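Before relying on records like the one below, remember that each one covers exactly one chain. Contacts with other chains, cofactors or solvent are not represented anywhere in the record.
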Amino acid sequence: MVDKVRVCILRVGGTNCDIETKAALDDFVGVDPEIVHINHIGRDRDLMDYDALVIPGGFSYGDHIRAGVVFAKRIITTLSEELRMFVEEERPVLGICNGFQVLIEAGFLPGFEGPSEFPTAALAINESVKYECRWVHLRNENEGKCIFTRELGKGENVFLPVAHKEGRFIFPRKLQDEFLERLLINDQLVFQYSNEQGDPAEGRYPENPNGSFHDIAGICDPTGTILGLMPHPERAYYGWQRPDWTGHKNMLNHADGRVIFESLVEYLLKNS
C-alpha cells in the first residue's frame, strides 16, 4: 500500500468550492489532496500521477454560454487523451454542482456506452427561473455500484445544500423514458430529491428545488467510478455547517456530506 493516495482538485477561473473540497479531504489520514489549475496539467503536473479527480463547484468561466460548457470544452481539447485514460483505468471522478455540469457537457455522464462525443443529458435552468440556494433532502437510490455511496444504505436519506441556477436534470424528451430505464437497469441512479421522511419529492417544490426529471439529483456512469451530483457535500462536511446545528443537544462532529468523501477514501485506500 502506498503512503498516501493523491487527489487532484481541478480548478479554473470561476471555481469557488475548491478550498472547501480540499479541507474535507484533508480530514482523512492517508489522503493528499492538491488544488491544481488546469493550466498546470501537461506542464508541471501529470493527471495520471493522481488516484482520483474532483471537479468542484463554482461558476467556471462565469458560466458563459451555459454552465460548465466552456470548462468541458477546455477539458476535451486539452486533456481528452489523459482523462479518457484516467476513466478507462476506473480512477474515481467526482463532479460537484458545476463539476456535474462539466461532466454532462463533456459526455462523461451518463456515459451509457462510455464517454460520448456529444452530451446525452443536460442540466437546464431551474423551473423557478432563479438561483436556488437551500438545503435539501436526498434519498440514496443506488444498489451498490456507485463507489461514492457505499457507506450509505439503499434508501438512506442525507441532508445537503444546493446552490445553482442551472440544475434541472433532463434527457431529450423523446428518449427520457428509455434513458431512465437504462439508468435504473445499470444501477446508475444515485440520488433523488426527497422530503424529510425520505419519500420521493415527485417534482414538488421546494423538495425538488429545480424541477429535475424523476427528481434526479445525482447519477454515476456504468462503472460506478464517476459520480456527478448537484448538491454540495463539501458544504455539509462538519456539523457546524448544518443550518440547524444550534438545535442539536449534542454538537455533531460531522454532517451528512462526509459520507461521500469517506466512501471515496475507503475505495482509494483499499485499491491503492
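DSSP finds five helices and eleven strands in the chain.
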